């Protein structure tokens, strides 16, 4: 855990062994205080005057980045000893007269009040194990994890899969994996994920020059740009010719195993960008937009909060229900829940009584697919500001919106002809062992996850509703299940919910808090996060099906 070339080593903090963590913390603390003393004012400023803004900035020697990381550890590390010692080091630095950072925002999500999320340090034994596993693997407990933990069974599967894709033995070198993650996240301008993987890319020895733009990366990665673009926005356009181009490009060619690894990474991060925007994930405390060195104003609220998208009271007042009396709101929302449950009951009775013909089922699918193209938001509200990450990919004008505007036709992909269970699963498992199994488990957990509740109601069978959400997403991608009656979708998913689904899945960067607030108003935040898990996995599977079908066609 020595200090090398001015860099601090943080690895020891991830250890399960308390003595190893204590030794690492001592080394870090001494190194930070040595650096701090070189820039501290001659006479240290008394801590009582810290709020007066009389402390010197910590910008020199990379100290500000180190202090931001210590702030993150003091709030987000699952090990209490690390949290406490990090806080102590920050206090000692402040006593030397150096300004220390403070967090911006309120919790891991801009959409979910912090008091309704799991607080680090108050989690139960099962969640603590998940947090410790995540921290040991990534060196952080990120905000995605802190929101996903509403559903621990899913989170465990997600973390296991992501760890395997990024860190375990596989066809691609580690720095390629993180760079592909950056390319995928950047397609949706997801600066949250780009920031995380830029740090990880550098940590595993990636060349900083590649971060200046895709044209600075090896030609092999540049060649992946076209597939990345189509997978993210129009996967139905992928053909075996696109696959052949990647596999046959002589010295820059991809092997089949490498390509499967890359495709799974691309689809994973396109979908994770959907979750990030769909749940309003806040910037990490130690990343840009997650902290500030500016002193708080008298009211603990300052202009830097506004510029980072945290509007405090104003944000609450801007919510769609703010002007309506609470009782009216609650009554309307309760009625919506009751109405939805009644529709589910009626549809079940209709199913039992009669079944539509195959021709009628096909007509209903085509109608729903056509209508889904015209579901769009009338929002003029700005979504969360994001840093420009366009340099990480080409053709920034290419997107889902352009496609639908031209009224082009999405071809129908019959799930009976090529499905994950019968075709995709075995192809992935053959070329990238164990990953097919991990993905299959994750898809099944998301699809079957239920607590048999709907808002305040218990003992409810939600399978019909979950299937409608999943099949609506696949319908937007042109994927049809012959045995499903698509007429159910219009009965179960109202317009505001469809707008939210379409935005999160197709143009996640346009998702707003107003959209999140406007659907299922009486449901718990955990239920809305559950919806996002369905969106993530249905989207990922849809993209994978198109890519894997093209690879299968190339192979045959």
UniProtKB/TrEMBL annotation:
Highest taxon, organism lineage: Eukaryota
UniProt protein name: SESN1 protein
Swiss-Prot/TrEMBL keywords: Coiled coil, Cytoplasm, Oxidoreductase
Recorded coiled-coil stretches: 330-360
InterPro entries, sorted: AhpD-like, Sestrin
Homology family: Belongs to the sestrin family.
Localization annotation: Cytoplasm
GO biological process, one term: regulation of response to reactive oxygen species
Gene Ontology cellular component list: cytoplasm; nucleus
Keyword Cytoplasm in record: yes
Reactions performed catalytically: a hydroperoxide + L-cysteinyl-[protein] = S-hydroxy-L-cysteinyl-[protein] + an alcohol
Key word Coiled coil present: yes
GO MF entries: L-leucine binding; oxidoreductase activity, acting on peroxide as acceptor
Pfam family for this entry, one: PA26
PANTHER family: P53 REGULATED PA26 NUCLEAR PROTEIN SESTRIN, SESTRIN-1
Primary localization class, coarse: cytoplasm
């Amino acid at each position: 855990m020595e200090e090398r070339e001015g860099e601090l080593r943080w690895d020891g903090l991830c250890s399960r062994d308390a003595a190893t963590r204590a030794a690492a913390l001592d080394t870090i603390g001494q190194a930070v205080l040595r650096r701090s003393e070189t820039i501290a004012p001659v006479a240290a400023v008394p801590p009582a005057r810290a709020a007066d803004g009389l402390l010197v900035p910590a910008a020199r020697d990379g100290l500000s980045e180190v202090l931001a990381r210590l702030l993150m550890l003091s709030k987000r590390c699952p090990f209490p000893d690390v949290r406490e010692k990090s806080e102590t080091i920050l206090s000692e630095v402040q006593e030397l007269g150096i300004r220390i950072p403070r967090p911006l925002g309120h919790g891991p999500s801009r959409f979910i009040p912090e008091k309704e999320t799991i607080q680090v340090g108050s989690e139960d034994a099962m969640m603590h194990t998940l947090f410790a596993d995540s921290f040991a693997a990534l060196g952080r407990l990120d905000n995605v994890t802190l929101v996903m933990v509403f559903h621990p069974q899913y989170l465990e599967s997600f973390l296991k899969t992501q760890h395997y894709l990024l860190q375990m033995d596989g066809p691609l070198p580690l720095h390629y994996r993180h760079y592909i993650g950056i390319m995928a996240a950047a397609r949706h301008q997801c600066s949250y994920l780009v920031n995380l993987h830029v740090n990880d890319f550098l940590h595993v020895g990636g060349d900083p020059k590649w971060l200046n733009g895709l044209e600075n990366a090896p030609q092999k990665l540049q060649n992946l740009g076209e597939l990345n673009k189509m997978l993210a926005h129009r996967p139905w356009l992928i053909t075996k010719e696109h696959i052949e181009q990647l596999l046959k490009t002589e010295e820059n060619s991809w092997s089949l195993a490498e390509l499967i690894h890359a495709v799974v990474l691309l689809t994973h991060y396109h979908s994770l960008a959907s979750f990030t925007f769909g749940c309003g994930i806040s910037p990490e405390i130690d990343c840009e937009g997650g902290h500030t060195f500016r002193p708080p104003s008298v009211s603990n609220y300052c202009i830097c909060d506004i510029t980072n998208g945290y509007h405090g009271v104003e944000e609450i007042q801007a919510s769609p229900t703010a002007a309506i009396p609470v009782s009216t709101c609650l009554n309307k929302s309760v009625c919506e829940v009751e109405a939805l449950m009644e529709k589910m009951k009626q549809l079940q009775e209709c199913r039992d009584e009669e079944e539509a013909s195959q021709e009628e089922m096909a007509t209903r699918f085509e109608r729903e697919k056509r209508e889904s193209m015209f579901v769009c938001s009338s929002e003029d509200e700005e979504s969360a500001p994001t840093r420009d990450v366009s340099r990480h990919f080409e053709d920034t004008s290419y997107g889902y919106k352009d496609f639908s505007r031209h009224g082009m036709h999405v071809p129908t992909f019959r799930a009976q002809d090529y499905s994950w269970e019968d075709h995709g699963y075995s192809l992935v498992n053959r070329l990238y062992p164990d990953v097919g199994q991990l993905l299959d488990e994750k898809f099944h957990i998301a699809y079957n996850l239920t607590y048999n509740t709907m808002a305040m109601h218990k003992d409810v069978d939600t399978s019909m509703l979950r299937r409608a959400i999943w099949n609506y997403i696949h319908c937007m991608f042109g994927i049809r299940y012959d045995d499903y009656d698509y007429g159910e979708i219009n009965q179960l998913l109202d317009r505001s919910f469809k707008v939210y689904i379409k935005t999160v899945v197709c143009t996640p960067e346009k998702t707003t808090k107003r959209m999140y607030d406007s659907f299922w108003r009486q449901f718990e935040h955990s239920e809305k996060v559950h919806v996002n898990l369905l969106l993530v996995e249905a989207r990922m599977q849809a993209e994978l099906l198109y890519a894997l079908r093209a690879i299968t066609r190339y192979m045959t």
